[in-house]
Amino acid sequence: MIFINPKTDYAFKKIFGSSESKDILISFLNALIYEGNSTIEDLEIINPNLPPKLEGLKDSYLDVKAQLKDGTVVIIEMQVLNVQSFGKRVLYNAAKTYAFQWEAAQGYRLLKPVIALTITDFEMFANSEEWISRFVFKEVNKNFTYPENDLDLVFVELPKFTKGEEELETLADKWIYFMKNARSLTSIPESMDSIPEIQEAFNIANQSKLSREEVADLDRREQFIYDQQGAIVKAVQEGIEQGIEQGIEQGIEQGMRLEKLAIARQLLSRLDNATIAQVTGLSV
To answer: Disulfide check for 5: which of 58, 183, 197, 253 has CB 3.0–4.6 Å away?
Structure first.
């Protein structure tokens, strides 16, 4: 069996946002947001795009959007490339989703919470080793939660998840293992046999069920991602190399200056300032 890469936008939407994905998405969200508890019993997958309602606002394109039974809206985005100001984009999309529920005739009391679940194929928070991070509004000094805490940002950083198949314990472990490794697997791991939603996700991801055109399109999308990642890595490496070269040059210059200063100090008691400046090349 060959599986499509769940990290590409087309595959992610096909697995988690298609008409047959409801149970899959419920399991996925319960695993990553509610620690594997069956908190979400039902949801509706809705159009993920957020067209602007006000002039001057940007369109927002999400991967998957769902509304839970209690009205809570969940927006899910899979991001492979670490683009500039990505953190601001996540916050913008969450705030925009929250604000656009409002209708003047309804009032603020009918606004429902918004959860933004973001899966990244890069590290966002260098100061944390946790692969799941959650952010809510809290008071700075006393650390208590804001009374109307309706914006919830959940991040899953795939590079920080390093468990092998034999180490998988929780439902979250198994879903993230699927996200990271499905493309390289040739069969469904035994540890996931007992989870029908993950089995169904593998079935949807089975490349044999796609047309040649779909497979070709997916290959192009995946190659584009690899090319972009390669370009980013190359730019970073070139920046490091340039920084090293500049550092060496600056280090040599600094060393020569320090040596001149040391010589000048030794000559202070013997020669006048103008002569010392002439000998060392330093300014008076």
So the answer is: 183
